Give the backbone structure.
Amino acid sequence: MPDLEYIFHPKSIAIVGASRDPSSYATNFFLKPLIQFGYEGKTYPVNPKVREILGVKAYPSILDVPGPVEYVICCIRAELTPQLMRECVTKGVKVVQLFTSGFSETGEKEGVRLEREITEIARQGGMRVIGPNCLGIYCPSSRISFDASFPKESGSVGFLCQSGGNSIELVQLGDARGIRFSKVVSFGNACDLNEADFLEYFAHDPQTKVIVGYLEGTKEGKRFAKALREAARAKPVIMLKGGVSGAGTEAVASHTGALAGNNAVWDSLFRHLGVIQVYDLE
């Protein structure tokens, strides 16, 4: 089992790029839910232009935060992320989640290069990365969410999802039906932590009784198949595979840069391992 508990239960979170702007994604997706959920750890908005956001003291940079920072949510422009990653390594940050997009999912050389650069900085610094191009963690027991309207009660369903939009929609669909989640992770481009890591984690997580996944592709086919086999032996596993049509395959590539793969291979894999395959979020 990968030691990922610290990702779902951080003692301090910094939101880099949080703003007083009412339309700020950083504030509305991340800072506001932490406040409204009653997150008990330390919360640090980071913005050099303001002193406080929503009543919470803000800091000019991650290096100016007085205490330790375990988890960083990055909401700044892609070209600024390498410097932030270096600062996070210096600060001793354990994991960086990048809401920021503009990396390999664009298909452009500069985006691909930037993603490789931030991944290498993290690896050399012993730091893990969720994303980029993702919403990160919803963990009711830790009072962490990327949507202030999500249920505050924990449940038994663990959800790994490459799509931020689908992660929101499935939680909302579940909420309407009385389903509650142990943990949800939206992991986007998966430059570091990927579907195999989270499958391995959920397979052993005592809070999670059912594993649900939305996948657009995989970067480590053999490892993913092994993780899926072990997970399906331990618990019911339900999978929705994106990109099942020609147009869908192109959409997947432009969304997270994933290679969707041959649908017959995916269908055969799910059937062979006893995975329950579904074809829409409903």
